[in-house]
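Supplementary Note 2. Why include the ligand at all?

Several targets in our set were suspected to adopt different conformations when bound, so apo predictions alone were not considered sufficient. For every target with a known small-molecule partner we therefore ran a joint prediction. The input for P-hydroxybenzoic acid is given below.
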Amino acid sequence: MRTQVAIIGAGPSGLLLGQLLHKAGIDAIIVERQSGDYVLSRIRAGVLEQVCIDLLDEAGVGERMHQEGLLHTGFEMLYGGQRHRIDMNHLTGGKNVMVYGQTELTRDLMDARTKAGLPTVYEVSDVAVHDFDSQKPRVTYQKDGQSHEIECDFIAGCDGFHGVCRASIPRSSITEFEKVYPFGWLGLLSDTPPVHDELIYVNSPRGFALCSQRSQTRSRYYLQVPLTDKVDEWTDDAFWQELRLRLDAPGREQLVTGPSIEKSIAPLRSFVTEPMRFGRMFLAGDAAHIVPPTGAKGLNLAATDVKYLSSALIEYYQEKSNAGIDSYSVRCLKRIWKGERFSWWFTQLMHRFPDQGAMASRLQEAELDYLLNSEAGSRTIAENYVGLPLDFDLS
Ligand code: FAS
Ligand code: PHB
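The joint prediction is reproduced in token form.
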């Protein structure tokens, strides 16, 4: 079969790219190794930047997000038993974030693709990318015991951190930057009312905790745990007890506990691939970069990659111009590295590192004291959290 753009991966990156290309009249086929239900079962991001919200509107899938999403103008930082509210709206001249689960956003994109009758091949295996350094790239895969081939003009590697696209690039053509953190996040999803109407980021002597939410009746909580922990070792009661120990008195009072509907441990890493374009194959989203989720940047960086890639491909087909394609890597990486910096910085500010020692603890406290009692300090947190403007410093 033949298409203009072959997209590997039906996560948010692949689905959003497919939707934006479709609206511009560009054909794309998506191949995905899991089932659609499995993709939806993965509980991940929860906070959308304005750039992401605008992109979903541009893709024509923002209706339910605006109906069910929660607009947040600020969030709390809790340390030393004291809460400090970061008033994002005031500090950034009116910007906010939207709390709307990645699962729901993915569902909206899947529904739009199905409604438009666009091809997504789920549960494929042995996906391989070929001749992406030629004018005639190809994708092959297995489905129900049959071999299939897609001839295309371009390949979009939207296949996440463990995908096949980045792995298929000759090592001499790619540079990978990685930092692995000495702890993970144990996440719990529960159908209980959130402990607070805004998110609470906690730096406690026992470690980091995050109180997030999906709706007025569904909460998402995280605890920093050692990398050696196994999710089966954590009963729901043990989770709630530890969360209580990391919260302040009002938090303990407000916390409504209940059975977990999902529980998992995610490792934390910072990772960047340079470049992100290889002939006629482009990497986008987690296929090219990973951030520790502390700054809520993972999904948002994926969305801006897709914004840049869709614009470049539309420009190629409609204006016969290679300008966007040629500048794709530079534009993405400018934004990605700033997202990586903020995510790393916020992680080292809010977590207790196993070997951090008394001096590092005092320095962490001093940094928090300064940032949260200085308008300039709080503004730097706020403007990075809501998301820097597109092409922030390419002007
Ligand atoms: P994804 O990994 O979501 O999607 C890639 C898709 O490609 C998957 O469906 C996969 O099955 C498919 N695929 C892989 N290999 C393939 C192959 N060979 N052939 C075909 N298909 C293939 N971000 C936040 O902002 N906050 C969070 O709390 C947060 N928590 C996270 C927890 C975990 C465990 C992980 C892994 C990520 C988390 N993230 C979080 C980041 C996450 O939201 C990503 O940024 C987001 O999923 C990026 O979307 P994609 O780039 O589409 O990658
Ligand atoms: C989430 O709701 O899953 C979430 C929110 C903010 C983060 C990370 C995860 O920084």
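The two ends are 41 Å apart (CA to CA). The mean pLDDT is 96. Comparable summaries for the other entries are listed in the accompanying table.
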